[in-house]
Amino acid sequence: MEIIVCVKQVPDTTEVKIDPATNTLIRQGVPSIVNPYDKYALEAALQLKAKHGGQVTVISMGPPQALEALKECIAIGADRAVLLSDRSFGGADTLATSYTLAAGIRKLGRFDLILCGKQAIDGDTAQVGPELAEQLEIPLISHVAKIDLEGERVTVEREQEESYAVINAPLPLVVTVTKAAYKPRLPNMKGIMRAKRTEIPVYTMADLDVDEQKLGLKGSPTQVRRIFAPKQRVQGQIIDADSPQQAATKLVEKLLESKII
Q1: Which ranges of the sequence are coiled-coil (predicted)?
Q2: DSSP letter string over 43-55?
Q3: Measured between alpha carbons, how far is 173 from 194 in angstroms, rounded to an integer?
Q4: Is the separation of the CB atoms in 6 and 116 below 8 Å?
Q5: The whole model's pTM is what?
Q6: pLDDT on residue 183
Q7: Which residues, including other chains, have CB under 8 Å from residue 54's CB and lie 6 or more apart?
Q8: Which helix (H) or strand (E) holds 202?
Q9: DSSP element (H, E) containing 198
Q10: Residue 233's pLDDT is what?
């Protein structure tokens, strides 16, 4: 069983900085973490490996500092990792990102299952997983709360608005994972030491079978026109009353005082 987990390093700060020229996040020098949803996907992979055997590989696209995120994944329990990093990858939207990740996965060779977090907390698009499946021309099951393996097939519980759908599908496929059944484990000392010793390969554009016009900003049909912080809302006020009628009366009085009505 060859399981690949796609991870992303995301900013761990409220002081997000934007490049005014490209309207993309400035990641250099900004404190970062492994995207939480990707940790759920990694936990799902490690549980499958513990039950059925196999190998877990983590892959990420990002600047050199993303090696820290991959080291953390190895410390948690991943067997190996690879980073896709090149200036030509910079500024990619979800389509260019999925194209590059697909090229990196093909470079790795055989795979049975690809797991992604359902979304990244910086962009919140939930698009890379589905687009990756399209790039690799394999099926997708999104928003999965639980996954298990049965021979050459998987059975998953897919989250819906008020229920779960149980789906059985053949391998290979892409699955995007929610946090429902997967609490990420912490790295132990043995894992931390192994991560320190591990040399993580870095693939550049020259290492991949890609069209340069489909990478980074060049390959991104969507462009961010403007990013800004919303204005802070005025804090609300709680009306204490003994009954709904009294609460309604107090509310009307306050609205009248404020000349709202």
Answers
A1: none
A2: HHHHHHHHHH--E
A3: 30
A4: yes
A5: 0.82
A6: 92
A7: 1, 2, 3, 48, 112
A8: strand 202-203
A9: none
A10: 75
